[in-house]
Amino acid sequence: MVKNKILASILACGLAMMAVACGGNKKTEEAKDEKLSYTPQVNEVTVMKLERTDFARQLLSNGKLVAGKKSALQFRTTGKIAAINVRNGEYVSAGSVIATVDRPDLKLSHESSRLSLQKAELDLYDFLVGQGYPAGDTTSVPADMLAMAKMKSGYSAAKNDLARSSYEIEGAILRAPFAGRVAGIKQKPFDQAPSDVFCTIVDDSMLEVDFSVMESEYSFLSLGLPVKVRPFADETKEYSGKVTAINPLVDEKGQISVTAQVRNDG
Asked: Considering all CA atoms of the chain, what is the largest pairwise distance in Å, rounded to the nearest integer?
């Protein structure tokens, strides 16, 4: 009886172990099925075509911005200022009269020179008539004869004297050599004309910027190279221009001076 119970117990344990083993095999097969059903993630790759091209190189430097044209004007004579026709900051066109000096003596001298030339011209015609040439007509007179007649009549000397007198009168008048703005006037009418600079004409329609680069960067520079300028006063503004001059001399700091010209659009 006892023997039968032990045998039954052994059979029960064997069946239990078989059940556990079967359950374990089932879980193993499910895990294998899960591995087989896993889809790996796809890694996308972007492809581009390589082409030979130039790489842009940028040079940064600080510089000084100045007007493209500037001329200091002064009278060629002394005297009291008769009139000042412009004010500081005013825009003038080329040839405009800025100021004049009162020199009545120069005006009298010029008038005397003009009268002397008229008299010399009459003497010239009188001489030519005496030589048998038509009065008032110099086209038929040979060149050597006409030159001698001008010397003997005093015509050449009188003409030169009038030109000198005209030059002296022009020295009492200040004219703008080019269009621009007037700056630096300190005198007033009836003041004595200064012996040095009376005013300055500044043309800021074109600006020049002087800056320096390292000697090692010299090979990257060339005339006409585009530049962009941003002033410290207003970095929102940007001026475009080109390199106009390159100084090949290297200074004590190992730098090269470069000049560029930009248009003032503001």
From this structure: 186
Q: Are residues 87 and 180 in the same domain?
A: yes
Q: Determine the distance from the C-alpha atom of residue 104 to the mean position of all C-alpha atoms in its chain, rounded to a whole number.
A: 44
Q: Is the dihedral of CA 182, 187, 192, 197 positive or negative?
A: negative
Alpha helices in the chain, H assignment, sequence order: 2-36, 104-130, 143-153, 155-170
Give the residue from 115, 123, 119, 113 showing the smallest Cα distance to 152.
Answer: 123
Both 183 and 221 in one domain: the answer is: no
- CA dist., res. 34 & res. 76, Å (int): 106
Which pTM was predicted? 0.64
121-161 residue pLDDT tens:
999 999 888 888 887 788 888 989 889 999 999 999 999 99
Q: For residue 117, give its domain range.
A: 71-199
User: pLDDT digits over 246-262, tens only?
Assistant: 998 888 889 999 999 99
Secondary structure of 14-67 as H, E, C letters: HHHHHHHHHHHHHHHHHHHHHHHCCCCCCCCCCCCCCCCCCCCCCCCCCEEEEE
Residue 196 is which amino acid? D
